[in-house]
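Support case: user asked for a sample of complex input and structure output to validate their parser. Sending the pair below.
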Amino acid sequence: MSATTESTGRRVLAALRRDPLAVGGTIVLALLVVVGVAGPWLAPAGVNDVDVDQMLRPPSGAHPFGTDELGRDVLSRVLVAARVSLQVGAVSVGIALVAGVTLGLLAGYYRGWLDSVLMRCMDVLFAFPVLLLAVAIVAVLGPGLLTAMVAIGVVYTPIFARITRAGVLSVREQVFVRAAVSIGASDLRIMRRHVLPNIAAPLIVQTSLSLAFAILSEAALSFLGLGIQPPAPAWGRMLFDGRGFVTDAWWLGVFPGAAIFLTVLAFNLVGDALRDVLDPRQLTLGEARRSTP
Amino acid sequence: MARFVLRRVLQSAVVLVGVTLVVFLLLQLVPGDPVRVALGTRFDPQTYDALRERAGLDQPLPVQYASYLGHALTGDLGVSFRTGQPVSAIVLERLPATLSLAVTAVVFALLVAFPLGIVAAVRSGSAVDHAARVFSQFGVSVPDFWMGIMGILLFAGVLGWLPPSGYVALTDDPGRWATHVALPAVTVGLVTASILTRFIRSSVLEVLSADYVRTAEAKGLRNRVVILRHVLRNALIPVVTVVAVQLASLLGGVIVIEVLFAWPGIGRLTFDAVQARDYPVLQGAVLLVAALFLLVNLLVDILYARLDPRITVK
């Protein structure tokens, strides 16, 4: 098993190295992680340093991304907000991955009534447009970083459950699984040691693509005032606050939006490249949602 | 075919009941008393008691749900905590605005995606194909509200061609409606077009490699005839599904765009309900959108089964 995993890892790395778009996406992601970790130290000014004499100043040497309606440095806020986006993306996709894989494993492995009940629950969640359900959940639980992460995690759970279940249904019929059953291995051991490693490829691809969608969803929730609360900076919220000034102060619209776009693009490029290597037949998250009845 | 339709209708009905349960439970998730939270500083005991009783919150949970389901089946979604108006009337009043935006966006998306997707597939590897792939990647990565802000900046701010926001009903003044819908529809439509382009391209590419296409070419049919008669006819069947589901998702998925452009549709209503903590209106809007989403999915499945009879066998 370890030799196979190692060779798959090498194959993926070699394929990613050959794809210039994937290399570009990986570099952007690496830079983002650095900015996410070191953002507060890289920022040239404090994110909440209000300066009424410097309100709505265009980009300059002192403020490369200009200043906002309170005179705060936009570059500093964009840099520090990277952490929020990455954090929400990682935690919400982590929630969706753990919940979805668990439910998909149980449904696919035990089948029967448990499968029917769990998958009908997933169908119910699929019946809601993603952002609408996330908005509704955050609205009732109260806006904030934690609730945004939980809401996004919940709405992306069904896609992981479906992918896992489909994989389990095919793997559980394989000879090595039947052999494990015949020697008396426990269900938990079979799922952990034999099923999960063999359905990992589509899950890795889906995780990468879901990170892009989770960051977009977080930006949308922040834009609606349902993400992290002011004065903490978030890219979506910066766009919302700046939308009234955008015809006079273009930099308030351009830079936070460009940061979201670059981040999502990087995750999509890496996700697409991973899909081409690991699971060429898998649809993107958007395609899967839209083409699934 | 009849059995397939019946099975899909039953499945959809079961999911719809599940949807009503989720929507009902949303109100139960509100920390504290939802009526007290909604009334806030406007609290007075008489209004409070009346709203609690009207919402059935003094009943046990299963009774509340049975009552909610029963009323929902007759179109009664309760009353707004804010205005006291029936929720179904409030939500239906906003439907035309959302519908006009969603349909315009999808029409725009089709006008872009069909030629681009088909040419990209037929001339695979060409400059058009590369442009189509860049466009697809751009569309799935760009936040639609950012594109909207850039649109406002360019077309309303710099060029002054279009209003930055606002709404005029199509029935009141078609000309002014067109100028107001243009920016939000193009913003939403470009994202939809990028998804459709990718799908149409891969669908046409798949059919192009089919045996019957090779046979048609071997018979000496002209390229144009092969594409129009054999390739497109078969390639566009799965695209029907994607187009319809895109339309359905736009009916409830354009909250941010409706907020940005002050478009008084269901998305804007949802946002206002969240701000005002008007939970019955929020529930009503979410339920209507999910029900529409299910209905469109059901109709698409039936249409798809008619276009491709192999589906019913599967």
